[in-house]
Amino acid sequence: PASRGTAAGRAFTRKELPLNPFPLGARAGLLAGACLLGACLLAGPSAADTVAPPDTAVIEIEGASVMGARPGATRGGSSVVRAAIDSLPIPAAATLRDVLEKLPTVHVRTNSRGEAEISLRGSESRQVSVLYDGLPLTLSWDGRTDVSVIPVGAMQQVSLVPGLASLLSGPNVLGGVIDFQSGVAARHATHPRAQVSAGVNETGGFGTSAAITVPRAVRGGVLTIRAGLGHRDSPGAPLASGVSQPIAGEDLRINTDAVSTDAFASLRYDHEGRSWVSLSSSAFREERGIAAELESSAPRYWRYPNIERSLTVLSTGTGAQVAPWGGVLNVQASFGADLGRTEIDAFDSIRYTGLVSEEDGEQSTLTMRVSGKQTLGRNADLRLAVTSGQLTYDETLRPGSTNRYRHRMWSAGGETVVRRPLSGGGVLSEIDFGAGLAYDRSTNPLAGDKPGIEPLDELGGRAGVSALFAGGKVTTHANLNRRARFPSLRELYSGALNRFTPNPDLKPEKLLASELGVTFRDSKGSLQLVGFSQRLDDAVVRIRVSGRFQRVNQEGLRSRGVEIVASRRFGALAMSGNFTAQSSDLLEPSAALGHPENLPEIMGGLRAELNLPRGFVAGASARYTGEQFALHPDTGELLSLSAGTAFDMDLERSWRIGSDEHWVSTLRAVLSADNLADEALLDAYGLPGPGRLVRFELRLQ
Question: Which of 639, 441, 465 has its CA nearest to residue 544?
């Protein structure tokens, strides 16, 4: 049984999930079936029109390969990176983690619970908001989103804004916003489209996904229907070179197998008068193991026998309309239900045979967000937004009891941007000024069997300025922000199966941040340089007390750094890269922690794509993670984790098999190798990342 990456396999899980109907011998047949499907859908050539959104600066880009992510700057003074999901080199049936690992300046790691965490600019995962069609997924029991269990089949584009670019994205946003869009981003499609992907890797892992988009002209507008399925099965993560584990003779990391299935469906109606309504729903189910910490006397021997999550979002908008009182008004409202269940089994040894305790959590989050934009004359506008969320969480411990918790948060904010165009043909084209205020409130009406806390509220504010030079080819921006984050229910009350001591006395974190940047663009590429400085008062950190961890407030955390994001085309060669250098220091020497955990001082990436003869495209990437720090799970001592670099390579070939008027037009074959040098990159103390993994995939689109 250990050949599937765990000494227990599925034999010792409490529930058997029928998620793997395809034996290994049938998987090659599915790949061949994808090829035959493409051969059956041949058609003639045509072209499709592309329309830029309003208020968008259009820069002509040379043809051929398209770099996945592009830097830019928002009006009001912040940097932003945008990407289309299907332009990124991600595997079939991908998750949010696969996408985020391809975005610049994002640090993704796996913690000791098996969850994928993200950080930006000296901030940890609870300070970064992940949005789905504008609604925050981070209003949760843990105050953050495990991006490894959110599929991306329904999602079409992603925007990454490091830092505090806006006060209108909801509460608890300090380190940045990552906005994935599905129904809200759906555009008019001229013809039905289909996408099918299937892939296998050297461990026997398998993934497949399929999606369709069907537009239909109806009375007064266009109805767009989208639906899709995804399935992934992995026997485990390959063991990196030099890593040893308690059970010898294994090529896969023990207890890292996973099997998951997801599905989505969405409807979007666009009225001729620009108003629209969208309903999207997705569901996910997974069983997986959690790698135990190496070199620890009491590691977590945990498995997730069942993880379920469903997201449903109803959104509507007026589009740009002439307001009765003058000017142009655009109002959008979203209502969401985020439902989930997580079951955790704790075992007595790495054999995963003796079940000692269980934790089941059922989560229900209902969220509403209403936003509006009103122009004020020709050169100014006002934006308002209200976000409200209620989380109910039922925690069942065996042996133990069941407790119910409830967390309510809401945020109201307003921002204005004043534009001052400059005439006369000078170098300086325009100056924009932005300012905003927000009020955030948090209450915990239910706290299980523990004492509750008083309602908390905080004020936030920001001011920014940006300047456009040479008709928008050069943009400079600067901003100053202040915002707070309320502790999550898990930080306040959870014992994590006796590994943590709860601390209901945690205070909100308060951030004062600034950034200054410049962005250069032309027809062949872009370059963005940003410097940032942040001070986080009452920073929540993890310490070791009496044999258990506990989260406590420290005096503060100071971070300073610089980010560089660039892309450039040189004929057949396209290059993109990013670099972040940051210094993060805790300000309270009494805690004996000079540095925060899991924040690399230097990180960066470089990717090159070369168009070769006969339609081949070769790609190579390097991802560097510098020195970082982590607590030893036994002693609580702060230790240094060594730096490392992961090299990836891929070779792609595309065939034009149809036209844009038919369901599919292109067949792509991709051969790739992740972590080619088989480097053991540490995500945390005793938790090395996967070793080398070779994949082969076919994609029809």
Answer: 639
Residue 338 and residue 312: Cα distance in Å, rounded? 7
CA distance 686 to 688: 6
How do residues 191-235 score in pLDDT, each as one tens digit?
898 999 999 999 999 999 999 999 998 988 999 999 999 999 999
HSE-CB for 123 with a 13 A CA cutoff: 32
Q: Is the dihedral of CA 491, 495, 500, 503 positive or negative?
A: positive
Token pair in block for residue 595: 């540095």
Q: Give residues with Cβ within 8 angstroms of 145, minimum separation 6.
A: 96, 125, 130, 137, 138
CA 276/CA 299 separation, integer angstroms: 51
| Nearest Cα residue to 99 out of 153, 154, 152, 161 | 152
- Strand pairing category for 157-162 and 78-84: antiparallel
Lowest-confidence pick of 43-52, 138-147, 514-523, 634-643: 43-52
The single-letter code of the amino acid at 469 is F
pLDDT in tens, 555-582: 888 999 999 999 999 999 999 999 999 9
Res 542: pLDDT: 87
Strands 176-181 and 128-132: parallel
Quick check: 483 and 511 in contact, CB under 8 A? yes
Indicate if the pLDDT at residue 35 is higher than 70.
no
Question: What does the DSSP assignment read for 293-322?
Answer: PTT-SS---EEEEEEEEEEEEEEEE--SEE
Q: How far apart are CA 107 and CA 499, in angstroms?
A: 26
d(CA 326, CA 318) in angstroms, rounded, equals: 16
Among residues 256, 251, 250, which one has the least CA distance to residue 234? 256
Cα 257 to chain centroid, rounded: 22
Measured distance CA(543)–CA(443) in Å, rounded: 26
Q: Which residues in 589-633 belong to E strands, given as ranges?
A: 602-611, 616-625, 628-631
Considering the entire predicted model, what is its pTM?
Answer: 0.83
Q: Which two tokens stand for residue 489?
A: 């229910």
Dump pLDDT digits (tens) for 93-125: 888 888 888 888 888 888 888 888 888 887 888
> Shortest CA distance to 150 belongs to which of 9, 21, 271, 311?
311
Task: Determine the Cα–Cα distance for residues 660 and 213; give it in Å rounded to an integer.
Answer: 13
Dig out the tokens for 513 from the structure. 């941040």
Distance CA 356, CA 476 (A): 58
pLDDT digits (tens, 9 = 90+) for 623-636: 999 998 888 888 88
